[in-house]
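Aim 2 progress update. The chain analyzed this quarter is reproduced below.
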Amino acid sequence: MSCDLAIRVNGVSKCFEIYDNPRDRLLQMLFRSRRQYYREFWALRDISFEVPRGETVGIVGRNGSGKSTLLQIICGTLSPTAGSVMTNGRVGALLELGSGFNPEFTGRENVYMSGAVLGLTRKELDERFDDILSFADIGEFIDQPVKSYSSGMVVRLAFAVQSQVQPDVLIVDEALAVGDARFQAKCFDRLKRLKDNGTSILLVTHSGEQIVNHCSRAILLNAGSVVVEGKPRTVMNRYMDLLFGRERALENDNDSVALSPDTLADQNATSDTKLDFSSDVYATRFGYNAHEYRWGDGAATLLDFMLKANNEEFPTVILSGAKMHLSLAVRFNMQIVRPILGIEIRTKEGVTVGGTNSELVYCEELFALGAAESTAVAAVDFDLDLAAGDYFISLGISSRRGDDIIPHDRRYDSIHMTVSPTPTFYGLVDLKLAMTAATR
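Predicted structure tokens:
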């Protein structure tokens, strides 16, 4: 194995024996190869890849795709059924942080116990204890039993200890998912320093933002096999296709067409003709969120939608700053006077980043609609100046009855959007900030 490589995985497969009941396991031990009492489950099939020194590689895939099994084989805690794994140097793992802590011991006692397991001497731990305490940021709780800690405090302390080891290969398996944004920023800063010092990192996460921002290459696993390996953004696009049941040719992922505003307007208008006005097909469209919250009196129905980003219909991943066009098919089942269309965009945590309705923007065309048994098309255009992440669109048709708002068809969090990372700003929204400076 070349000294320039940190990890080489060659044709690795892993098969688990699945027994329906404990008796079958005993019978298998007695009869051995004469009869098979188990079912085979292949968690991995012929996995091969290499990780050069100092490179950060992301591994993504749906739950059950074999990611954790692969990492356990690389760490040496699990043996492959076929194939081989070779590593250069010391391997460290950030898996279930804090799982080895004794809840009855204090944080200080767990630091020394965990550090010793990782191979650090008492002297080394004494020298690094202040750094550990500073990074964990748990204050006086360091001398309290770990059973009194919050889950976030346990994770911070565990990562602070683990990061004191300087491994040649570091494996991170969703270990940072439970931390808050501030803690994750500190962790990734520490990981960056390890990488700069030559540590090779395998990062397993469901976060496309982390994969694109921190990895130079990514690997997508599905059903125990490698689907694609390559640039992080291309791999994440393919992951979204698999995650939401949409197949698209990889060679088209990087295609882009620059369209003028006039051309976009013309093509957006023609997209409205693709809406279905005869039946409620809303839930069949790509991007529909099956966990939407829907209610209303049924006087109107949102039948269908068409979402476009820079003229791409039903995009898998959207670039920040994209020109968005959302078309809606509406049916008025009863007479509605001056219907109101509302839209709201929220983060996956439920934070509203923007919204409006036809009353606020004074959409006169909508005011005249609402005849019983009629259909109409409504459209919303906006710039998606948002940071990377997952967002949900909520929509609703309502009307006024005196001072009351009567909901006819409200579909909260009904459309899912994924915004890809952008290096031009940080935060939640692009404020189009500009800077100037001059000498005096």
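Residues 246-271 have pLDDT under 50 and may be disordered. The CA atoms of residues 72 and 217 lie 20 Å apart. These observations will guide the mutagenesis experiments scheduled for the next reporting period.
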